Queue: 3 jobs
Job 1
Amino acid sequence: MKLRNYYPGARPGNRCVPARRVILVMLAILLGGAPAHAGLETAIEKFLGRQAALALAEQFGTDTDPFLTAWVKQLGDRVAAVSPRKDVRYRVAVIGMDEPNALALPGGYIFVTRGLLEFVQDDDELAAIIAHEVGHVVGRHGMRHIKFQLLASLLISGVQSQAGDLAATAAGLVDALMALQRSRHDELAADRMGVEYAARAGYDPNGLLSFFNKIRETKKRSWFERLFATHPPAEVRIERAKGSTLLADPPVEILIAIGDRLAAEGRYNRAIEKYRAAAARHPGEATVTAKLTAALAVQGKDANGTRISG
């Protein structure tokens, strides 16, 4: 399925990069940074993200498997519903790449690869990955990188005209290292947000740890590889994620949210586990008691978990 069919309004003749003049005007607004331009900046973000999404889909193609697209949409919609950023519409699509990967473009466009869907173990892992990408959108990481890269390009161009190629090369190296640092910082920030959004959407936030453990590297990288790594090592990300209270000591509302999602999917045994954990925190709390009783009743059991005869 072509992306232009996935996103309403996309037309075959409209996938090219816009006119240079339009791009320059947009970038001038982005660099202005005035609060009055906040709404316009969001519109530009959506425009640039859509252009990038169309180009990406044209290059790799979007997957047409109805099961995979429905699976990704269901999880994406649940995670998007708890995102604090409401000025963009989140669109999650599958692209035909064998490498396990996911990425977020400006404006709410999120892609997961077919290889990733074959690599993840369950809904919790995939929801955590999608939630991580939603975190990039919430943090506007893509647009910030665009601004930095534009400023860096202007600076390097100025240095080259004044001091020659050697100085410009050094400036380019500094910019590249700064970009990597921003990337690592953004990845850790998106991890924190991903854990939260996945949990609030009703998924086990440990899904992110499970995924990181699967991609954990088996050998140490050289100092040069670590220096130029765009993502923090899996070990670092695991340790940072473990520090989240949502993993170590999830609040009652998170336990209820996960229980509600499991119950909606007919997975009552696991839903009852979450409701009971919530009830242990607040014995006698009416909402938790009602949910636990209802889930037990579906299994033909009373409030104590005893099978109802007859």
Job 2
Amino acid sequence: MPIALTVAGSDSGGGAGIQADLKTFQAFDVYGTSVLTAVTAQNTLSVRAVHVVPIEVVRQQLEAVVEDLAPAAVKTGMLATAEIADTLAEAMVRMPLPNFVLDPVMVATSGDRLLDPDAERVLADRLLPLCAVVTPNLPEAAILTGLTVRDEADMVRAGERLLELGAGAALIKGGHGGGEEVVDVLVGGGEPVVYRRPRIDTDSTHGTGCTLSAAIAAGLARGSALAAAVQAALDYVAVAIATAPGLGSGHGPLRHAPATAGGAPAAGDHGS
């Protein structure tokens, strides 16, 4: 069984972060390991508190996992501080951590800030050049590139800029855009690939970014090419949103059902 590693924060509400990542790995029949960077007190309405894990504990988690359960892919989520981001960058250089999917988590769906401002610089300067693919939403793409990112043409330009900054590829996510259609753009050195889907009218969007990046990492861990892993991940997230259980009073969680061979949950599978 392939192994994937997530380096991220804990979501006490279970819809995002480490919890969403591990559920997604399991859905793709990938064994999930984890390095916890922060403990958050949150639900579908807001983030109430964030406790950052001591840096030495983060480092020891990384070393313990990698020396015994070497991952075939790794993804990051909430890194919290510049020190943690620096520690991960150092580990990426000296440890066997292939197929690095960088989810630049900066702001929660609820609007709460999740990344120390100093860590944004470390993420851009040190982690971006190490990743196989970076998966920013529109606001994150704007922060990382300094560009205005609103429409499809902007997304292509932002993706190209992220490649110039060192990323192996960039998937610019359009979920924060308007209109009846969601547009995502994958830029990887060749012709950009544009994915279009009808927008689903729902409040069940908590953890979509975490889930998508985890699904991409799972695909890469299973040996898929990047474009195929992205397609399967987008299919999976679309069905996970459409079949969400409607829990909570705010932005509810997705339904992390088992994935089919094509990557999406079986539409008729309503088990846990």
Job 3
Amino acid sequence: MTPAGQAALRAAAERQPREADYLIHFQNLEKTFHPSLAQAALETAILRREAQSKFPRLAEKMYFTRPALEQATPAEVAAYRAARLAGREPVLDLGCSIGGDLVHLAGQAQAYGVDHDPLRIHMARANLEALGLSAGLLRADLRATLPFMPPPGTAAFFDPARRSGHRRIFSVQDYKPPLSQAQAWLGRIPALCIKVSPGVDLGELADLDCEIEFISLHGELKEAALWFGPLMTAARRATVLPGPHSLTGDPAQRAALAPAPGAYLYEPDPAVLRAGLVGTLADHIGAAQLDETIAYLTSERRIESPFTRRWSVEDWMPFNLKKLRAYCRSRGIGRVAVKKRGSAIQPEDLIRSLRLQGELERVLVLTRLAGAPVVLVCRPSP
């Protein structure tokens, strides 16, 4: 943050560096700047370029460490979550790290960030200032009792550490601090949101009185969040971004089973799958399930939904390699992409075995219908 540091950072950024070219850029920068300053500036410039996908329009002004960037919430997800917390004040960001979520909270309410790492506290402050925002910052160890008494009406977002070195932590009770300790804060902060891994073991959450939300961004599952107290609005929620589009329901709801594939095949968004809301989605769009253990839905109607990808079904048949090869050859299908759910066949092996020739392209979907293996022939564009 010194004038010399900012000069080094500008010089590094002008090179548009990438990790693969680190050495040559460093050798050039150290001719002008002290090696440690050249190193810090170059690493920051590289991380800013890599952060563009997570922090579009913001990354070029922010400061990162590589672990902090890897763990940071994408800006679209952070903005969505901040919107769910809108109207509550003050808002605490517990475990704020470099401020990836805090910058969104501070844009709409009186906000405070807490973290035990002094470097990340300084980086959070620099990121807030770079974006023209302000928030209170406190260095404290959240593994101990909360170091303050929150006023009535306080809401909080808590992002526990889910890595130990380079190793992922899978159990919520091994988070730092563990989920059990965060639950103890509910007496002081009933309006609490806790970020957890999207691969969290739902069995560990079975006894919690909270909303469990899974969030996807551009079709990729990104994270899960637990919403407690007045922030809880459903038992289970799947949210698709951009949007936001949210689907709520009961994971116990089951979809009707289809006697045969219809004209359209629907693949639920990964947030819907992880939330266990396939039955809710089927009811929502008026579709049926091909197999009770497979999350493919089908319908005769063309349905527009942000919660699915859709394919036009051209034909289907019980799976038989010889018959499928003859079918494709008779129709001039020479290129195929293979999707599968509930099939042990490897796509590469199938494509090689078909030995196709022709100009048409199709998608072959290997799955089950009422327990029996089938293949659906679909048009290539979802």
